[in-house]
Write a structure and sequence with these properties.
Layout: H1 8-20, E1 23-24, H2 25-30, H3 39-52, E2 55-60, E3 63-68, H4 72-87, H5 92-101, H6 107-122
Antiparallel strand pairs: 1-3, 2-3
């Protein structure tokens, strides 16, 4: 189970890897937007992600083909759980209130959320 948070740079690399599915460092680096990090920096980030359990690899001689060991959905759940815990006193109600107060959710959105909750209870 993953528990360690990712840095912004690590998240950027994971997004590339999730999109690509797998790849060698040189191929994944090509997908990185400008400004691209140095090859060695990028490789170090990937190896760090592997140490944290987010990435795994297949070896082909001295080459390593990396692939995500954690799905984007698994990371999303951890990330949201941490944000709610750290910034909203572990209350999802506080999260919704925040978005309402920021004018990011309106009454129609809230009605739709209620419908989703009620449908889920019926299952």
């Amino acid at each position: 189970m993953i528990t360690k948070r990712l840095t912004k740079r690590e998240e950027d690399v994971m997004k590339i890897l999730w999109e690509a599915g797998k790849g060698f460092v040189k191929d994944l680096l090509k997908k990185h937007p400008e400004p691209k990090p140095h090859y060695n920096t990028f490789s170090t980030i990937i190896r760090g992600l592997e140490e944290k359990g987010y990435v795994a690899h297949n070896s082909y001689g001295n080459s390593h083909e990396y692939y995500p060991a954690v799905t984007k959905e698994e990371y999303r759940k951890l990330f949201i759980k941490n944000v709610v815990s750290d910034y909203f006193e572990s209350s999802y109600k506080n999260v919704v209130s925040f978005f309402v107060n920021e004018d990011k959710l309106n009454v129609d959105d809230l009605k739709e959320l209620i419908d989703i909750i009620e449908k889920k209870k019926q299952i």
